[in-house]
């Protein structure tokens, strides 16, 4: 089931493939969380089952760290004695547990497959398909219920310093940029790729505003990353980016956008971080004019579509060209990252967008209907759109709605998340507007 995440667990029909605790990161509605995939629990001491005791120990450690546990059972195989044993063990724990009946690929027979598991006493069994994603919406709703809610006003921590991660390939000038912004030789600068080997924190005061810049190690393609120190460097870099407020994606103006930089852009967008694209070494480009500038901006939007909403700066860390504009771009991105729009205004924009272009109908004549929307979270702005059936809204129409929301409400410099939820027409009343 964790294979639903981009870097999910290894999947194979053989039992015992997953041994260690595997961590992934995800989000749902207003919650961001870590998911820990553990090996299958077996309580019998069978000498033929290698590492079963160690796998069990790893699973118990993960359970102690968890805010909620997910018990996954096999809907095709039916309820087994081991399922009952594990359920009995989990009922004795203080961690709330949600029951998922996996391998229910058919929505019609899902209720029949789950009926056998009511006897486990774990509450409602959710019929899901980890392979196809069927039923995952209801399961995720149940999983995030026990998670702590973000306190009111938690988004308004403007007095805290902005955390800014500097990301990019090796040798694009990240450390030079940090030194320029810090007005000091904080990081070692060299033409040798891989000079920076750990995340370097630098506090900078600019116009009485405090920033924390995180200079990260250069991230190469996974196939080229050697095990050991470099692998740890990359993990720490990505972790720093995930915990930052804004990411500076640094590119080399003398080179084209590489596949690895496209991957980094995807990572920033999927992590929900605000972003500013910084094209360094602009001083090394000859024959610069307005046409080249416009062509370069269009090229970046085409090569980095997942962060097309990010502002672009063409700078030189070596000469200081336009480096001070980074502060203004970061502030604007962070402000929109924390932007909360009133429900009434957002629904006006949504109604205009739907009126201008109706959702496409299916070949069977089914028409998607949008009822209302509400923003449920910030950092990044997350909007729930209530409709008759989320499956009727394809990727192109979802992009259209996002584009209309951006056009009318801004959100420049930040990703926005649109969650489509099924809701009956009689439940149209919108939640009260607290703004």
Report what the structure shows.
The chain has helices spanning 52-65, 81-91, 110-115, 136-144, 174-182, 229-242, 259-270, 290-303, 325-337, 343-356, 395-409, and strands spanning 22-28, 31-37, 69-74, 97-102, 125-127, 162-168, 200-206, 209-215, 246-252, 274-280, 311-314, 370-377, 382-387, 417-422. α7 links the parallel β9 and β10 (274-280). The strands form 4 sheets. Strands 7-8-6-9-10-11 form a 6-stranded mixed beta sheet, sandwiched between helices. Strands 3-4-5 form a 3-stranded parallel beta sheet, sandwiched between helices. It is built from 11 helices and 14 strands. Mean pLDDT is 80; it is low at 2-20, 185-198, 222-230 and 426-435. α10 packs across α11. It is globular. The protein has 435 residues and is α/β, with parallel strands linked by helices.
Any descriptors?
435 residues; alpha/beta; 6-stranded mixed sheet; 3-stranded parallel sheet; 30% helix; disordered N terminus
């Amino acid at each position: 089931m964790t294979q639903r995440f981009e870097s999910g667990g290894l999947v194979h029909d053989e039992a015992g493939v997953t041994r260690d605790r595997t961590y992934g990161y995800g989000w749902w509605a207003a919650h961001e969380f870590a998911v820990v995939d553990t090996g299958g629990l077996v309580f019998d001491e069978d000498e033929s089952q290698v590492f079963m005791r160690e796998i069990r120990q790893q699973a118990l450690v993960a359970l102690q760290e968890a805010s909620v546990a997910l018990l996954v059972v096999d809907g095709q195989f039916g309820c087994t004695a081991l399922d009952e044993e594990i359920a009995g063990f989990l009922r004795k724990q203080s961690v709330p547990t949600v029951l998922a009946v996996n391998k229910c690929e058919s929505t019609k027979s899902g209720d029949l497959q789950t009926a056998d598991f009511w006897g486990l006493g774990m509450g409602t069994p959710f019929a899901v398909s980890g392979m196809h994603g069927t039923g995952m919406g209801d399961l995720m709703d149940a999983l995030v219920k026990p998670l702590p809610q973000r306190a009111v006003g938690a988004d308004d921590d403007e007095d805290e310093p902005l955390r800014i991660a500097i990301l990019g390939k090796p040798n694009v000038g990240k450390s030079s940029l940090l030194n320029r912004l810090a007005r000091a030789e904080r990081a070692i600068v060299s033409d040798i790729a891989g000079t920076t080997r750990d995340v370097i924190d630098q506090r900078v005061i600019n116009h009485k505003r405090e920033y924390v810049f995180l200079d990260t190690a250069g991230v190469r393609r996974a196939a080229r990353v050697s095990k050991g120190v470099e692998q740890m460097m990359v993990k720490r870099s990505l972790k720093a980016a995930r915990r930052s407020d804004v990411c500076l994606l640094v590119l080399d103006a003398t080179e084209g956008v590489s596949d690895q930089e496209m991957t980094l852009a995807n990572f920033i967008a999927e992590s929900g971080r605000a972003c500013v694209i910084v094209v360094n070494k602009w001083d090394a480009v000859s024959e610069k004019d307005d046409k080249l500038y416009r062509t370069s901006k269009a090229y970046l939007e085409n090569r980095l579509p997942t962060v097309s909403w990010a502002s672009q700066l063409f700078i030189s860390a070596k000469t200081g060209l336009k480096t001070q504009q980074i502060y203004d771009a970061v502030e604007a991105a962070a402000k929109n990252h924390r932007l909360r729009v009133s429900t009434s205004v957002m629904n006006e924009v949504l109604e205009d967008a739907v009126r201008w272009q109706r959702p496409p109908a299916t070949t069977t004549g089914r028409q998607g209907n949008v009822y209302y929307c509400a923003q449920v979270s910030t950092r990044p702005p997350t909007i729930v759109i209530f409709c008759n059936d989320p499956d009727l809204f394809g990727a192109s129409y979802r992009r259209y709605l996002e584009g209309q929301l951006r056009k009318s409400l801004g959100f420049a410099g930040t990703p926005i998340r649109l969650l489509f939820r099924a809701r009956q027409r009689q439940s149209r009343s919108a939640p009260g507007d607290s703004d």
